[in-house]
Amino acid sequence: MKRTIIGIDLAKNVFEVYVEDGSGAVVERKRLSRKKLLPWLANRPPALVGMEACGGAHYWARELTKLGHDVRMIAPQYVKPWVQTNKSDAADARAICRAVQEPGMRFVGMASEAQQAVQALHRVRSRHMGNRTALVNQIRGILLEYGVAIPKGVASVRKMLPLLLAEERWAPLLQQFLTDQQAELRYWDAKIEAVTAQIKRENATQPICHRLEQARGIGPLGASALWGKTAGQSYQNGRHFAATLGLVPKHTGTGGKVRLGGISKRGDRYLRQLLIHGARAVVRQVGEKPDCLSCWIRRLVARRGMNKAIVALANKNARMAFALIHGEQPYDVTKMCGTA
Predict the structure, then answer these.
(1) 67 and 117 fall within a common domain
(2) Per the domain annotation, does 290 fall within a domain?
(3) Could you report how far apart the first and last alpha carbons of the chain are, in Å?
(4) What's the Cα-to-Cα distance from 128 to each of 94, 132, 192, 221, 270, rounded to whole Å?
(5) Residues 6+ apart with CB under 8 A from 202
(6) Is the domain of 326 the same as that of 288?
(7) Percentage, residues of the chain above pLDDT 90
(8) Which of 129, 164, 172, 283 has the greatest number of CB atoms lying within 10 Å of its CB?
(9) Are 141 and 49 found together in one domain?
(10) The last residue of a domain, from among 203, 218, 233
């Protein structure tokens, strides 16, 4: 007997459920509250459960897996083609039920609680960074109104503020304002350092992060983000993983002709940013180093330019990271140095 297929449209309080049997006949349509969803699924035989990979999906996937169900999460853009007529919660649940049965469908792997905790740390750090950047821009903008032009960057503001406060040219109100802004800048610096230190402590407990940090262009933040995002996912190979991060050219094709453009910039923007920044640091510091990776970078820069070489190294690091995480291979720089 074929197993039952269940499509669940997740929400905050009300969940739409669509159930089909193995032959495709509709068995049940139901609307359940958050409190009733788990008891209802606990009383059903093991089934194939599909849901969109949205907020809270990994929690529900872990809970339903404990009940014996086979849970598969689908990216929302892959569900959309199955939505008929107008969009509604019931239509979405039906579309999920149909999409999860599609041969060749790409599913999202289930993240563990530890991985989600690390991802949360990175999101908190990004918010702190954004708050500090907004503060620095405000300080620079206000001081420009008084004829003081501070160069871009947090370091410039951090260096100039004590010097400006030592001057006696400011009115008492502005002097107090600059003092408060300096204190707030130090506050955000401390918050960012605390979260970064916590991420590094978490890295110390993960052998995968130790292997990733050996690669040039991948630091503690990059290793932590790669482990949190990649471990347990069902990527086909390293090239597929690099493509999901938007580190490959986007292409359009018709009439048998394919035209390549710039990088697609799909997927996780934060992780792509870490890989690009890490690669940029490596390329800028390559100098005359004699190792094979540096020679490969110099040849690529001479032939394709700085920016394309940076993206190429980020792509190479992404594919290497996939091998380290999923193949449990040791880091070997010689495997990254093909002919350029």
Answers:
(1) no
(2) yes
(3) 55
(4) 40, 6, 6, 15, 14
(5) 117, 118, 121, 209, 224
(6) yes
(7) 74
(8) 283
(9) no
(10) 203
Bridge-partner residues for 9, per DSSP?
16
Cα atoms in the Cβ-side hemisphere of radius 13 Å centred on 224:
25
What would the 3-class secondary structure string for 100-136 be? CCCCCCCEECCCCHHHHHHHHHHHHHHHHHHHHHHHH
> Is the whole model's pTM more than 0.85, yes or no?
yes
Domain count of the fold of the chain: 3
Range of the structural domain that residue 141 is part of: 113-203
Distance, C-alpha 295 to centroid of its chain? 31
* pLDDT given for residue 338 in this prediction: 57
Query: 47 and 138 in one domain?
Result: no
The answer to the question of residue 130 being in a domain is yes
**Do 89 and 43 belong together in one domain?**
yes
User: Is 258 within a domain?
Assistant: no
- Confidence class for position 130, pLDDT limits 50, 70, 90: very high
Q: How far is 241 from 315, CA to CA, in rounded Å? A: 9
Token pair in block for residue 9: 């449209």
- What mean pLDDT is predicted for residues 279-305? 92
Q: Quick one: 73 and 90 in the same domain? A: yes
| Identity of the amino acid at 39 | P
What is the percentage of the chain residues whose pLDDT exceeds 70? 99
E strand or H helix that includes residue 51: strand 48-52
Domain end marker among 54, 86, 108 = 108
Write the CB contacts of 68 (distance below 8 Å, at least 6 apart in sequence).
46
Pairing relationship of beta strands 26-33 and 48-52 according to DSSP bridges = unpaired
Residue 148 CB coordination number (10 Å): 14
Q: Is the pLDDT of residue 339 over 70?
A: no
Long-range contacts of 180-188 (CB under 8 A, 24+ apart): 181/135, 181/138, 181/139, 184/135, 185/132, 185/135, 185/136, 185/139, 185/154, 185/157, 185/158, 185/161, 188/128, 188/131, 188/132, 188/135
